[in-house]
Design brief:
The chain is an alpha/beta fold and about 400 residues long. It contains 15 helices and eight strands. Strand 4 and strand 5 form a beta hairpin. The protein is elongated, with a radius of gyration of 31 Å. This is RNase H type-1 domain-containing protein.
């Protein structure tokens, strides 16, 4: 609808190119004429990809721009009670066996086909006790058979009037009184008990078996031992440990003539960019800083590297090493892969383009503690919002860490 209204005023408008200047830049005058001052200003702040780049579809709700079914589901559930999220977070714990987690999810999400949810079933009575209507809460909590298993388990529940109108509230109520390190054991017990209750219900309904509480208790105990032993094996052999990579092997080539230290300070859309340059031959150093807008901290870190490369080329520098404490940014530049922030993609395209203009351009990761000087300058530029251009002055000598050579 918006574009149709715009085309009435601008008959020659056919594509984004008609709103652009040469060089792949927005035309602010045309944007204001087409969309008004406020909307035109917002559009002009959208960063453009280089002309030789292919368009790509972005999932805006994710920082990396990648769409997944899980993220779509989370977006659909964003208005749910936050307490529900606490339940699911506890269930999908890495210590809980997937089979147990799925059973818990099926019951608490209402995916179990109890008679109450089946319209074609005329007989709604519980086959385990023949006293109440077969609903989720009745089968897994109110039924005397279920209550006997709750009471005789490793986490005995005595109070018959526990707070909660449904099973999710009951589980949350119980979790509040259990130590954090024991919650996965409690949920494993509940999952095994749910599975045994449902298995017994089906055996009685379809095979005419009799209810045997003692046999059900033995079955639950065996399953608990199996799942607990699996968890112990994972802890012993370290199958749950995460591999941590280090990038200290990145070195500055000995032939490099200039070393550049960069850092950014970002908060609520405001960014301070700092660039420190060292001439290895004369040991002279310079500081440059400016204030800018950025959508995220990662975009600010990439903008400061882009700005440093631009100044180096303007100064005629052909051999340079870029040192940054933003590990993900440095890694993405070196590997020529997109960072986990889709809003910074346009900046990364510009960085890769400028790198090719140097005779020698390397990137290294520097520890944050060794980049404090740049951090102080960046914070100063962010706080002093009037600094919209750069400040260029000679600074104190840099100390280049030995591990970079």
């Amino acid at each position: 609808m918006l574009m149709e209204e715009v085309r009435i005023r601008l008959l020659n408008l056919e594509s984004v190119a008609d709103l652009s200047r040469s060089g792949n830049e927005w035309d602010p005058h045309l944007l204001e004429q087409a969309f008004g001052r406020e909307m035109g200003w917002k559009i002009s702040n959208i960063k453009r990809l280089p002309q030789d780049c292919e368009d790509s579809v972005i999932w805006k709700k994710a920082n990396d721009g990648i769409f997944t079914t899980k993220r779509a589901y989370q977006e659909c559930c964003q208005f749910q009670d936050c307490r529900d999220q606490d339940v699911w977070k506890a269930i999908w714990n890495s210590k809980i066996h997937p089979r147990v987690a799925v059973m818990l999810w099926r019951v608490l999400a209402g995916c179990i086909p109890v008679k109450e949810n089946l319209a074609f079933m005329k007989d709604k009575d519980c086959v385990l006790c023949e006293e109440g209507k077969e609903s989720l809460k009745h089968v897994f909590w109110d039924c005397p058979f279920a209550r006997a298993l709750w009471f005789s388990g490793m986490f005995p529940v005595v109070n018959a009037r526990a707070i909660g109108s449904d099973l999710k509230e009951l589980i949350l109520f119980f979790l509040q009184g259990i130590p954090r390190n024991d919650k996965w054991q409690f949920l494993t017990f509940v999952g095994c008990m749910f599975e045994e209750v449902w298995r017994t219900r089906n055996a009685v309904l379809f095979q005419s078996n009799r209810v045997d509480i003692l046999q059900s208790r033995v079955s639950i105990s065996k399953r608990l031992e199996e799942f607990y032993s699996i968890q112990e094996e994972q802890l012993v052999f370290g199958t749950n440990t995460k591999r941590v990579e280090t990038y200290l092997s990145w070195k500055i080539p000995q032939s490099t003539t200039f070393v550049c230290f960069t850092d950014a300070s970002w908060k609520q859309g405001s960014a301070g960019l700092a660039v420190g340059l060292v001439d290895r031959a004369s040991s002279r150093s310079w500081w440059s800083a400016k204030w800018s807008r950025a959508e995220s901290a990662m975009e600010a870190e990439s903008m400061e590297i882009l700005w440093a490369l631009q100044m180096a080329l303007e100064a005629g520098i052909q051999s340079i090493a870029m040192a940054s404490d933003a590990l993900l940014v440095v890694k993405a530049i070196v590997e020529e892969s997109f960072p986990p922030c889709w809003k910074a993609r346009a900046v990364f395209f510009e960085i890769w383009k400028l790198v090719k203009l140097f005779n020698s351009c390397s990137f290294v990761f520097i520890k944050r503690v060794d980049n404090e000087a740049a951090d102080v300058v960046a914070k100063t530029a962010r706080i002093d919002g009037h600094c919209k251009d750069f400040i260029n002055r000679e600074g104190s000598p840099f100390v280049i860490p030995n591990y970079l050579f």
